[in-house]
Specification:
The structure is a single chain. With 94 residues, this protein is mainly beta. The chain has one domain: Beta-grasp domain (Ubiquitin-like (UB roll), Roll), CATH 3.10.20.30. Helices cover 9% and strands 35% of the residues. The protein contains one helix and six strands, in the order βββαβββ. It has one helix at residues 46-53, and strands at residues 7-10, 27-32, 35-41, 60-64, 67-69, 84-91. It is globular. This is Sulfur carrier protein ThiS. InterPro entries: Beta-grasp_dom_sf (IPR012675), Mopterin_synth/thiamin_S_b (IPR016155), Thi_S (IPR010035), ThiS/MoaD-like (IPR003749).
């Protein structure tokens, strides 16, 4: 009998210098995985943040202000100044 083990890893968030960034006049402050980020464009959705940070879209989970955000809502949920996010991605194991 074989049992699989799922491993969760916290994403190390660094802004991808190659990712396109739309010019915004305003920025917002977010706390992502315990780190302050003051340079993010205002009005980002969660999907926009994932793209901005250059993170993979698959096998990722996001908690916003202590509530898990369903993946189906990533394009609809607008982030607000001072939101607290935890971003994790899943690593297969067995």
């Amino acid at each position: 009998m074989t049992f699989g083990i799922a491993v969760f890893a916290q994403v190390n968030v660094r802004v991808n210098a190659r990712a396109p960034v739309k010019q915004a006049t305003e920025t917002m402050h977010l706390i992502i995985n315990g780190e302050n980020h003051d340079d993010l464009p205002d009005g980002l959705t969660i999907a926009g943040l994932i793209a901005h940070l250059g993170l993979p879209e698959k096998k990722i989970a996001i908690e916003r202000n202590l509530s898990v955000v369903p993946k189906s809502s990533f394009t609809n949920v607008r982030l607000e100044d001072h939101d607290v996010l935890e971003i994790i991605h899943f690593i297969g194991g067995g």
